[in-house]
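#onboarding

Welcome to the new folks! Below is a worked example of what a typical request in this channel looks like: someone posts a single protein sequence, and someone else replies with the predicted structure as tokens. Don't worry about understanding the tokens yet, we'll cover that in week two.

Example request:
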Amino acid sequence: MSRVTIYTHPDCPYSLEAKNELDRNNLEFDEIDLSVITAAWSDVEKLTGGQRITPVIVDGDSVTIGFGGVG
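Example response:
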């Protein structure tokens, strides 16, 4: 299984919920906080077709834009 990368922003409540979900499922992840690593916005824009949205979750070749919870 590949390691998950999550692009987050502290002003985004969905970023927090996505990280909590990953923790609940015992999935290890690397977090890229876009308020700290602002240059990573260009990566987010590439992954989202030009949008500045968080969270963006990358798991191998799978990219999830936003977070709506499970269920």
